[in-house]
Specification:
Rossmann fold; two-stranded parallel sheet; alpha/beta
């Protein structure tokens, strides 16, 4: 449980504090932008990770609306699997992730920055993941929960 509380502090508390700190001077200048990194997991019932990423999306979109005409843009970035050192450093096994689901980091950043410049408050910067998140919005939550729990963390005694 300690790891999950730490994750919540990083995904939620840090996003709240850092976004607030960044937005204050941007608002005074009348311009600026913040891209908070969420995940496509925000659209799937997937335990603490998915819930914390859903919080990032909701917080960012709500704050973006509140900032309205201030000249400050906020956007929640929801990538899928990105080719970086993240998974290796976290000692996560990604051997079961199909190759077609992996995104190139540079292309992801380019697409995300374009979405931020366009004033989008939500960026899913890849057609594959746009399709998957669209399906997730249409699918019954119970079906999504069953599918995501096959590979998700199990709670309680094993």
């Amino acid at each position: 449980m300690g790891d999950e509380l730490t994750m919540l502090k990083v995904h939620c508390e840090a996003v709240l504090l850092l976004t607030t700190a960044a937005v204050v001077p941007m608002r005074e200048r009348g311009r600026g932008g913040v891209a908070n990194v969420a995940s496509v997991a925000a659209f799937v019932p997937r335990g603490t990770y998915g819930a914390s990423k859903a919080w990032v999306v909701q917080f960012t979109q709500g704050a973006a609306r509140d900032l309205g005409a201030s000249g400050v843009r906020l956007m929640a970035l929801c990538p899928g699997f990105v080719r970086t050192e993240f998974h290796k450093r976290a000692r996560m096994d990604t051997g079961n992730v199909p190759g077609w689901l992996w995104l190139d980091a540079d292309r992801l950043v380019d697409a995300a920055l374009k979405d931020l410049a366009r004033g989008k408050s939500l960026s899913v910067p890849d057609p594959r993941y746009k399709a998957l998140t669209g399906l997730a919005k249409l699918a019954p939550r119970s079906a999504l929960a069953r599918a995501s729990s096959r590979t998700g963390r199990r709670y309680g005694p094993r």
